Amino acid sequence: MDKDRLDRQIEFIREIDKEKSIGRQTYLADASRKEDDAEHAWHMAIMTVLLSEYANEKIDVLRTMTMLLIHDLVEIDAGDTYAYDENAKKTQRERELKCADRIFSILPEDQGKYMRELWEEFEAQETPEAKFARTMDNFQPVILNDASKGKSWAEKGVHLSQILKRNARTGEGSEELWKYSYEKFIMPNVKKGNIKED
Q: Is Hydrolase a UniProt keyword of this protein (predicted)?
């Protein structure tokens, strides 16, 4: 056994526990509280197992799940950037790159390289796996917003145009899930007044 390797793996495992403390703006389905980054990642990983049959292209499910489980680890240092906060988005990439440099370097070199490449793949949005992961990242909060009767959308005064802009690439991973999301969750919440019309 390589003790140094195991020590570094355990250090990373302890470090990523901090993801449980990173709050998000989306409420749980029962609207009792807002979810955290770790819950968000777990939820999308399960969604990928269940919904991968709707991907536009065949995907490697394990690769996509791993991508989703690590894609927000950079928020341990960078913090969560709210989807509709245009000012925070201006510095998001810089903040997240700095954390990626730090957090993935904790791991043994081969694993750190793999995780960093997977994170970069998600960010680039070019592979079928990255596109489907983005679909999950956009679809999951829509499901929860609908389940909580649009609570977060209503509190923040979110407009339909903002949601459509945010979801502009959702269909690249799954046209079926984007259409379902739009018809089943988004437009009914516009009609209920939870999402503002432009």
A: yes
SS3 at position 5: helix
Alpha carbons 67 and 45: distance in angstroms, whole number: 9
196 pairs with which residues across the strands?
159
Decide which of 143 and 78 is more confident: 143
Alpha carbon distances (Å) from 166 to 134, 141, 158: 11, 11, 11
- Give the per-residue pLDDT at 83: 65
Picking from 118, 123, 131, 119, the residue whose alpha carbon sits closest to that of residue 57 is 131
The gap from C-alpha 27 to its chain's centroid, in whole angstroms, comes to 14
CATH architecture of 3-191: Orthogonal Bundle (1.10)
Q: Which helix (H) or strand (E) holds 35?
A: strand 34-36
Residue 3: pLDDT band (50, 70, 90) is very high
* The token pair that represents 26 in the structure block: 């989306």
Residues with Cβ within 8 Å of residue 150, at least 6 apart in sequence:
189, 192, 194, 195
C-alpha span between 78 and 99 (Å, rounded): 7
Q: What does pTM read for this prediction?
A: 0.93
* 62: pLDDT strictly greater than 90: yes
SS3 135: helix
Angle, CA of 12, 18 and 20, to the nearest 5°: 125
